[in-house]
Amino acid sequence: MKFRQLLLTAIVFAAAWLAFFADKSPQSSVVEATERKNKFVPANTKSSISSKKQEADLDVLSLTALQPRSSFIGNSNSTTAHNTLFSQKNWSPPLSTSIQSLPTEVPVVPSLPFTYIGKKFESGIWEVYLSEGDQAFVIREKDTIDERYRVEKISPPTLYLTYLPLKQTQTLSIGVFD
User: Fold this and answer.
1) Cβ 47 vs Cβ 55: under 8 Å
2) Average pLDDT, integer, range 116-127
């Protein structure tokens, strides 16, 4: 072992011995307040010390009176931007009148929520299997799905759906004819 390791081991054992075998009795004495040598006197109050020699002997340190917080950062009830410490700042330029006068946006058809699973052609009729989350759907032409979509046409490789609230047609790729 190196000297450093031996020294650290000795310190650890000494600390452990003090922790286990030191005097653990509570202190019964009460600490009394003592008078300070330096007297602090506010600068705006009259001192009872009259002579300059006594002031020099006591080494008086003068303190200024406390000032109200509102003189530094403003009134706490004030909500003006220059008085609030963490006020919200809007750095974007103001909107021009031509932008504000634009009509509201036209509603947009959401993307198709369906996932293609498979298809089957039987007795001249196509069946397509779709899923949306945990739900699975078996659809044919002219079927309605959750009163939101209507199947217009099934002709592989495309499925044509109409979004009923806006009456707009969307397509879904379902693969080629097998």
Assistant:
1) yes
2) 93
